[in-house]
Amino acid sequence: MEYVSPEGLRLDGRRFNEMRQIVAEIGVVSKADGSAVFEMGNTKVIAAVYGPREIQNKSQQLKHDRALVLCEYSMAQFSTGDRRRQKQDRRTTELSLVIRQTMEACILTELMPHSQIDIFLQVLQADGGTRSACINAATLALADAGIPMRDLAVSCSAGYLNSTPLLDLNYVEDSAGGADVTVGILPKTDKMDAKLPMETFETVFALASEGCKAIAERIREVLEENTKQLEYRRAA
Amino acid sequence: MVMRKLELPLSQTQKVRFKRAIERLQSLSSTANSDASVIVTDSIPVNHDDAFLKGHGTSEVDGELLATVCGVVERVDKLVYVRTLRARYKPEVGDIVVGRVIEVSQKRWRVELNFAQDGVLMLSSMTNPDGEQRRRTSVDELNMRNIFVEHDVLCTEVRNIQQDGSLQLHARSEKYGKLEKGQLLKVDPYLIKRRKHHFHYVDTLGIDLILGCNGFIWVGEHVEVRDPMIIVDQKNDETVSSSTNNTLKDQSHTTLETRQCICRIGNAIRVLSNLGFTMDLEVIMETFNLSNSKNIDIYDMLGSEFHVVVTENEAERRRAKRRN
């Protein structure tokens, strides 16, 4: 199948280095300590953070000198084309783990001993790149909850189809079977589905990194606006 | 909790009025400290020649001071720290807090305080309700549920913060203890400033208002603080019949007017919290009076019109304050 037209346009009309529209909003769940909605084109994820709070299940506490980070990822039944029945499958569990590890690496957990931080992620619409959208949403929610972090973890995917590196794959491109890399900037790079020669990997990786930077820029804007709003309303 | 985006059905005129009030607030505060707000990983400008102390919310990476939370940079002498806005409560010794009991365990109560861990109130750091010295007996321990049970709301003081971050409370005064006949409201802790007084008695309405430093606010019917010495005196003076009279009085119902006042003040606090304005007694009572003078029903206070009115009022108030 033709994923990139001779004019260099993709199926949804984007260029190879173009991202989908990003919409980010903070403070959507009123009861949570921090929350955010993150949209990348048709992919939409809602994140809620609770904590740091008292550890609910003491047996889960492995280290006593730092906070416990828990993450629950789920996909709404209406999020994909055909209705999903299965609640927990291996993909979900794996994704929860990946997101949890990423977030744990960027939260300064040693500042909050004997407490736990819960991150709940729900995919409302899935159109490729849910993993990236989840990490971005979680970052926003954590920043909103005032939890100290080393850095803003951001993520973006890139793939290689029709011998062109493509940024921010949607569902059709994602399921085309080409190689794709999801890059989380700050500490972690994760997962590749198909083989990719070293030199093309370099370009694909660079493209994804560029994408991450653009997302980080957007996230910073949102946070900055939010912080300013809160401060001047509060005023002394 | 603060609604960052006010999700109220505003009519066109209300929208314009709200926007204008918000802009006024913005212009009022912009001169104060304009670019002090930072977000995660922003670098904080410091003079490296002078010694400086890095405080909360900062970390030093490659000789550069970075923020680890979103908030406002504060400088006190050499100390540089970031004051977070929306975050959980950070306790300080001596803070007056309002909390909810979630567990009765061995010699202690666990109290929910909107902190990273539950607060601990030891039985030994409680004075008896009648001001007597507590005897450490097992009977006393068994009777703990007579004092507080799960879900009771209480008011205490932060006694100390342990090395591992856990929080100890005490209630060694008559003013602390169980709170009844009222409402508990939860707001973001950054909206409440530490003051000399956190207990307020609105004598015109007969209402007690406790602004807990942890963002929990208690609005309830006024109860006389019983001075243990006076009680002892009364006991000597009066006969048995009067004491039964007292217990009858305790069980009496709160009058309708008082209950309405409690709800009205409660809703005033909710509106202020929705809008993210700092609260103290003065602001809360002003909002309360505003709703009265505008003849707004209690249930209408959470509607769009009152939110707009309060925002305009706040802008006006801050401007008046600036002039003085």
From TrEMBL, chain A:
It comes from Arabis nemorensis. This is Uncharacterized protein. GO terms for biological process: nuclear mRNA surveillance; poly(A)-dependent snoRNA 3'-end processing; rRNA catabolic process; U4 snRNA 3'-end processing. Keywords: Cytoplasm, Exosome. Belongs to the RNase PH family. It holds the Pfam family RNase_PH. GO terms for molecular function: RNA binding. The keyword Cytoplasm applies.
UniProtKB/TrEMBL annotation, chain B:
Keywords: Exosome, Nucleus, RNA-binding, rRNA processing. GO terms for molecular function: RNA binding. GO terms for biological process: CUT catabolic process; exonucleolytic trimming to generate mature 3'-end of 5.8S rRNA from tricistronic rRNA transcript (SSU-rRNA, 5.8S rRNA, LSU-rRNA); nuclear polyadenylation-dependent rRNA catabolic process; poly(A)-dependent snoRNA 3'-end processing; TRAMP-dependent tRNA surveillance pathway; U4 snRNA 3'-end processing. One of its GO terms (cellular component) is cytoplasmic exosome (RNase complex). It is found in: Nucleus. The keyword DNA damage does not apply. Residues 92-172 form the S1 motif domain. Belongs to the RRP4 family. PANTHER family: EXOSOME COMPLEX COMPONENT RRP4 (PTHR21321:SF4), PNAS-3 RELATED (PTHR21321). This is S1 motif domain-containing protein. It comes from Arabis nemorensis.
